[in-house]
From TrEMBL:
Keywords: FAD, Flavoprotein, Oxidoreductase. Belongs to the FAD-binding monooxygenase family. GO terms for molecular function: flavin adenine dinucleotide binding; N,N-dimethylaniline monooxygenase activity; NADP binding. It comes from the Bacteria. This is NAD(P)/FAD-dependent oxidoreductase. Gene3D superfamilies: FAD/NAD(P)-binding domain (3.50.50.60). It holds the Pfam family FMO-like.
């Protein structure tokens, strides 16, 4: 790609980017590109290929409402099936042609004089009127910072970059981290390895998953009667939305959920000493609760040790904990999560040259998770305070897509070429977030470290209310929260807004 011009540039071809491309076309926009750093679409469902990788939200809800799939093979879709779903949806809606693969954004800077974004990529320079980040939040692996990390002479890799060529059979394997990814791959590798050491900083809340295969009869009925799929989606939505009772309504509602977690732990881990070490010491919801039926039984196997003493250092062939014990291992697997915010945020620079990453480091901020003051003609999906802890991310992404597309339609219809959320509107929103977050389980549930809170104890990016309330707030572009400027005209006096592809 050489130096070119386009009306809209979207970063990322995962759920957000694909959904945006589809809805942009439906709204009559054709002059747009989706910039994807990899060779294929799919985002996190392309990159995460570790054994057991699957969604932790039922597939009938973790999918586009406008593209239901009656043929999910299980309650919770597995990675290959979700990736196939995304490929099928993108092809069916004819948006793959808009995607530019192997194209990574190196820098994106707002140019005030020309009122556009200058985007440098590894394939050339692109000038765009509108920039939208659909980069997601699970694209960059996070590694721990232990002394001696680089001295380890065995095999080491992150779950995001699973080494499928490396055979774990008969090895002594260390897993660092007990988050959602580790909970999924630990049961898969446990039967193969000679010894599995699971290094646990804090025990996660594990809730029954109740996953199962779907029958041919079920799938046939869903194909024949789409209303059943809508009802199923609605049922899952209501059930998951109920976690909001724990998150921000009243922490007292946590007790039934904690009872489920404790009951599962009692049923699946008979050893009382191990069970005590696997019992969380914080309220459910303070960190991400995880749905699993096979993680706890895997930890109870004879070839597994759960180690909750902190790691002091890593040596050439071992991991040393602070109690002085040296644990010899052949392979280390990092299940240590992802960099938040994503690295691309540090490459997007607004009016004053400051990046979104710089702002995020100071204080996570946005307006409704979709716009940022100081960044004209910029929108995002799943930005700070645009995600919730009690609902499918796809539901929130669809709310944001609807809002963004309505903003772009407003710009087109009213011949505007510059929109920017007002600083006072964003600050009022952030004040509201802080006020509504003060007594949430995320901040007062007893967690020491979590994605959900900042170092100074504030909400790190979750919308502190119901997802249906968020849907109402983003149902249309609220122009009063923005500064709007009319289009500059071309030499022949015509608005230079929407171009044909």
């Amino acid at each position: 790609m050489t130096d070119t011009r386009v009306h809209i540039a979207v970063i990322g071809a995962g759920f957000g980017g694909i959904g945006l491309a589809i809805k942009l076309r439906e709204a009559g926009f054709e002059d747009f590109v989706v910039l994807e750093r990899s060779a294929e679409l799919g985002g996190t469902w392309r990159d995460n290929t570790y054994p057991g990788c699957a969604c932790d939200v039922p597939s009938h809800l973790y999918s586009y409402s406008f593209a239901p799939n009656p043929d999910w093979s299980r309650t919770y879709g597995q990675q290959p099936e979700i990736l196939d779903y995304l490929r099928t949806v993108a092809q069916r809606h004819d948006v793959v042609a808009h995607m530019r693969f192997d194209t990574e954004v190196v820098d994106a800077s707002w140019v005030e004089q020309s009122r556009n974004w200058r985007i440098e990529t590894n394939s050339g320079v692109l000038n765009a009127d509108i920039l939208i980040s659909a980069a997601g939040v699970y694209g960059d692996a996070r590694y721990p910072d232990f002394p001696g990390l680089d001295t380890f002479e065995g095999t080491a890799f992150h779950s995001l970059h699973w080494d499928h060529d490396h055979d774990l059979t008969g090895e002594r394997v260390a897993v660092l981290g007990t988050g959602a990814s580790a909970v999924q791959f630990v049961p898969e590798i446990q039967p193969k390895v000679d010894r599995l050491l699971v290094f646990q900083r804090s025990a996660p809340w594990i809730i029954p998953r109740m996953d199962r295969t779907t029958s041919r009869i079920e799938r046939a009925l869903l194909r024949k009667l789409p209303i059943l799929g809508k009802a199923l989606r609605g049922g899952y939505y209501t059930g998951i939305e109920g976690f909001g009772l724990v998150g921000f309504v009243n922490k007292g509602f946590r007790h039934p959920y904690e009872f489920l977690g404790r009951l599962q732990l009692l049923r699946q881990v008979r050893d009382s000493t191990l069970r005590a070490r696997l019992t969380p010491d914080y309220m459910i919801g303070c960190k991400r609760a995880i749905f699993s039926d096979d993680y706890l039984p895997a930890l109870a196997r004879d070839n597994v040790d759960v180690i909750d003493d902190a790691i002091a250092e890593i040596r050439e062939h071992s991991i040393v904990t602070r109690d002085g014990i040296e644990h010899e291992v052949d392979t280390i697997i990092y299940g240590t999560g992802f960099v938040v915010p994503p690295a691309v945020y540090g490459r997007i620079h607004g009016r004053d040259g400051q990046s979104i990453g710089d702002l995020y480091a100071d204080r996570p901020q946005s307006y409704l998770g979709t716009a940022v003051a100081g960044f004209p003609n910029f929108f995002s999906t799943l930005g700070p305070f645009g995600a919730v802890g009690n609902q499918s991310a796809i539901y929130m992404i669809e709310c944001q897509i609807r809002y963004i597309v309505d903003a772009l339609v407003t710009m087109r219809d009213e011949k505007l070429d510059r929109v920017e959320v007002r600083a006072e509107a964003q600050e009022a929103f952030l004040d509201e977030v802080d006020e509504r977050s003060a007594d949430t389980v995320w901040l007062t549930g007893g967690c020491s470290t979590t994605y959900y809170r900042t170092a100074d104890g504030k909400n790190a990016g979750l919308y502190p209310s119901w997802s249906f309330e968020y849907r109402d707030r983003t149902s249309r572009f609220d122009r009063d929260a923005y500064d709007l400027l009319p289009s500059q005209t071309t030499a022949v006096g015509q608005p230079n807004l929407v171009r044909s592809r």
